[in-house]
Specification:
Largest sheet: none
Subcellular location: Cell membrane
Membrane topology: Multi-pass membrane protein
InterPro entries: MFS_dom, MFS_trans_sf, TM_effector
Oligomer: single chain
Number of strands: 0
CATH superfamily of the largest domain: MFS general substrate transporter like domains
Structural class: mainly alpha
Protein name: MFS transporter
Radius of gyration: 21 Å
Helix content: over 70%
Organism: Ktedonosporobacter rubrisoli
CATH topology of the largest domain: Growth Hormone, Chain: A
């Protein structure tokens, strides 16, 4: 993995992304604290979070279509610059009277962010090479989890010591640092965008038509259908887990908010360890097998997390399980991203990852709704057991249905993706 970081272009992308993610976590932790302190309202805090989440659902797939038509590096530079500028109105928020500014900023930031994720996912295979995809995605996941550990801890401290203005300026600075690092890239001629795909507007296709074409392409390739269906079910579980974990920890296990907050950090530690391990075994395990095995193990450990503390109430054991579950959690995401990148040609990656982003957002919202509707009736332990079982079964399903895909994916690493524009 270290060899990848020594490659100029990939190293610049990775370090820029790390700084940006740390800045994001500063604001993601600091902003809810600020809003709740200012208003004393859980509703205002949740509405602020939902406002930033809505663009994921509405625009992710369409943003992916445009990413396929634009220069990915320039798209990321412009998007990050707009994200930095969009944050500046938050400097005018000092009381509840200016809270409406915050909602507008959250929504606009969510809109511009939609272009960053598919552009980055489409750019990684070009910079790292098909044979280094697992290692590259492992490094990306390591940066995500490191920033989560470091940025979330720092965010709570800085919002108290520097106030909202200080955190906003630091996050804006992190976006600008990404722009600088991306501008320093020197892409070889063969990695430059094709002439017919570059430009500010969709030349040959209307946006809606290209979006529909992207959905049809997904339905034409069996492995893509399986991955999308698998992730849809998992994200419903993620929505359930996000709502009911706090209920499980506080009402069932009778721990407080401090323990609840520590569990995410424990999983982050496990994910960092998992990133190092998955990056090390990268070429030895095909991405389809990595996805299936890790999804199954994640579900199995999830079931242990829910059931073991009911019979053995030990906090250190709970922490240990959350550390362990972080390893297959990262492996599952790396395997999924690598499969999508291997299966799809560069000309289509943006819209595929954009559609993936929209599906995730929609299913998480459905999961949250199900948790709210049935959580009190069925109880947190039962619903969380269902969530863990879905993960384990989805892993087995992938192993059974995509086992034959392994040889195809190995072949695509040296030849061409299975799905190309015009197929």
């Amino acid at each position: 993995m270290l060899a990848l970081l020594r490659q100029r272009n990939f190293g610049l992308l990775w370090f820029g992304g790390l700084l940006s993610l740390i800045g994001d976590w500063l604001l993601m932790i600091g902003l809810p604290v600020y809003v709740y302190t200012l208003t004393g309202s859980a509703l205002s805090t949740s509405m602020m979070l939902i406002t930033g989440f809505v663009p994921n659902l509405l625009l992710g797939s369409f943003a992916g279509v445009l990413v396929d038509r634009w220069d990915r590096r320039k798209t990321m530079i412009i998007s990050n610059a707009l994200l930095a500028v969009t944050l500046l109105p938050l400097l005018a928020v000092h009381s509840q009277a200016e809270l409406w500014i915050l909602y507008i900023v959250q929504f606009c930031s969510g809109v511009f962010s939609q272009f960053v994720y598919p552009a980055e996912q489409a750019l990684i295979p070009l910079l790292a090479g098909e044979e280094q995809l697992v290692a590259a995605n492992s490094l990306r996941s390591i940066s995500q989890n490191f920033s989560r550990l470091f940025g979330s801890a720092l965010g709570g401290l800085l919002i108290v010591s520097l106030g909202l203005n200080g955190v906003v300026l630091l996050d804006a600075l992190s976006f600008l640092s990404v722009c600088v690092m991306l501008a320093l890239m020197r892409l070889p001629a063969h990695l430059q965008p094709r002439e017919d795909l570059a430009g500010v507007a969709v030349v040959e296709q209307k946006l809606l038509g290209a979006w529909v074409e992207g959905l049809r392409l997904i339905l034409r390739l069996r492995p893509l259908i399986i991955i999308f269906a698998m992730r849809a079910l998992q994200c419903i579980g993620e929505g359930v887990f996000g709502v009911l974990l706090v209920v499980f920890v506080e009402k069932v296990l009778h721990y407080g908010a401090a323990v609840y907050g520590s569990l995410g950090s424990m999983q982050g530690i496990g994910s960092l360890l998992g990133g190092l391990f998955i990056g090390w075994i990268g070429k030895r395990v095909p991405s389809a097998r990595l996805l299936g095995v890790c999804a199954f193990l994640f579900g199995l450990i999830d079931l242990l997390i829910i059931n073991v503390p009911l019979f053995v109430p030990n906090l250190f054991l709970l922490w240990a399980l959350f550390i362990v579950v972080g390893i297959p959690s990262l492996g599952m995401i790396v395997g999924m991203s690598s499969m999508l990148q291997e299966l799809v040609d560069d000309s289509l990656r943006g819209r595929i990852f954009g559609a993936f982003q929209s599906v995730e957002a929609l299913m998480v919202l459905i999961g949250m709704g199900l948790a709210g509707a049935f959580g009190d009736r069925l109880g947190a332990p039962l619903m969380l057991n269902i969530q863990g079982s879905v993960y384990a079964l989805s892993g087995l399903f992938v192993l059974l249905t995509l086992a034959g895909t392994t040889s195809m994916l190995q072949k695509t690493a040296t030849e061409k993706p299975l799905l190309q524009e015009g197929d």
